[in-house]
Amino acid sequence: MFQTIRGTFDVLPATHESGGSRVPGTPAWRHVEAVVRDVMARHAFEEIRTPALEPVELVARGVGATTDIVTKEMFTVERTRETYVLRPEVTAPVMRAYLQHHLGARGGATRLFYLGACFRAERPQKGRFRQFHQFGTELLGTDDARADAEVIANLVAVYAAFGVTGTRLRLNTLGDAADRPAFRDALREHLAPHAADLSETSRQRLASNPLRLLDTKDARERALLADAPRLTDFVGPEAMDHYHALKAYLDALGIAYVEDPTLVRGLDYYTRTVFELESDALGAQSALGAGGRYDGLAEAVGSKAPVPAVGYAAGIERLFLALEAQGVALPEAARPDACLVALGDAAERRALVLARDLRAAGLTVDVALASPGGGRSMKAQMKAAARSGARHAVLLGDDELSRGAAGVRDLDAGTQTDVPLDALAGALTRDSGNG
Questions:
Q1: Residue 430, CB half-sphere, CA atoms under 13 Å: how many?
Q2: How far is CA 108 from the centre of its chain?
Q3: 58 in helix, strand or coil?
Q4: For position 268, what pLDDT does the model report?
Q5: Structural domain ending residue among the three candidates 290, 325, 360
Q6: Rounded CA gap, 210 and 188, in Å?
Q7: CATH number, domain with residue 366
Q8: For 168-177, what is each residue's pLDDT tens digit?
Q9: Cβ proximity of 424 and 358 under 8 Å
């Protein structure tokens, strides 16, 4: 029998275990998506949906050729002379769509949000999958520091809407592209005498992109960085003014933050602001969502003019872990209001019509159907009604048809009453609390 690919999972109607991880059922996913969409709407972000397949060059040039995503984690698809990639993130595709469809021509800033699957060839572990799901925002077309504050406020508002507490916002500035060469040289000079103490990956980063070393989780390497030059000491006055303005806006909003000069993020397109929202409930992999400003991305993917932009991405699987850790209840499948049980050909035909009418009246209705070899006896159908989880079984046979009524059995209390067929919708609505 075929199985899901390692690092992927099915979302079923009910919560289940998959590969050592607890996967919430579809009602919980719909709830999460609805809450995200509600917060986005109140913040005036419009939804965008991009393809799962994108040109490999878009990701390589946008994310950075030396990043782990490009060098280790991309799923590529070759078709004739073209190579595509299953999108590992959504910011570069959103920028591609913004440029392709001239969204900036509408004037002013463009506020976009997304929900969707991404793909990375990572080692699967708790809360980390090869197909995972993200939501995020992209605010394009403005270099106003208030845009950075708006995006951060939106991220904080999403988690507040879910009742997630105990989060921590880390904040830093990377300065502008022109600020970095001097810092890279200073960092290389500081670490070069200790190259033998670095991992092979870190030695490669020291040569190609020293800023990535600031993101190391290795305790020995972090000790070497303790007295290293600080990026903020190399940030120019314009970028530093932007950073000070952002902090003032966050202070006005009452959003607490911790300044972290080692925060750099893992993608090359970031400039100026970077931030990360963490939760200790997630353990070592503490990030809930992260982002920053990426004013140089548009030109990196082919634009003739810069497009200042800022945004974030957040993992839905990691949100579920935070909700579970804090004991936040998520919706499970709703109970049907009724399950129709019919005996006899005429009753079976009438039951289908009755199910249609009750559904049109706003009720959730199941129909007890015969399973292979299970027969259509009353006993078999009542078992089916019980398995459906319905609040009521509606019994219909020749006798009920002759009287223009149906037997309505409360499957919780075990009581049964006769209800005229033309009053059935009203009776079920009252009993189900939908009135």
A1: 6
A2: 27
A3: helix
A4: 66
A5: 325
A6: 7
A7: 3.40.50.800
A8: 999 999 998 8
A9: yes
The span from the CA of 299 to the CA of 61, in Å, is 10
**Whether residue 106 sits in one domain with residue 34:** yes
pLDDT in tens, 211-247: 777 777 788 888 888 888 888 888 999 999 999 999 9
Q: What are the distances in angstroms from CA 377 to CA 14, 341, 367, 373?
A: 28, 10, 14, 11
CA 316 vs CA 10, 159, 173, 230, 378: distances in Å: 15, 11, 26, 33, 44
Among candidates 345, 293, 343, which has minimal Cα distance to 139? 293
373 and 313 within one domain: no
Residue 223 neighbours by CB distance under 10 Å? 11
pLDDT digits (tens, 9 = 90+) for 52-102: 999 998 988 877 766 677 777 888 888 888 889 999 999 999 999 999 999
Q: Which strands, in side-by-side order, build the sheet including 258-259? A: 46-47, 110-119, 131-140, 309-315, 287-293, 271-279, 167-173, 258-259
Residues paired with residue 114 on neighbouring β-strands, in sequence order? 136
pLDDT value of residue 435: 43
Tokens 């989780």, located at residue: 217
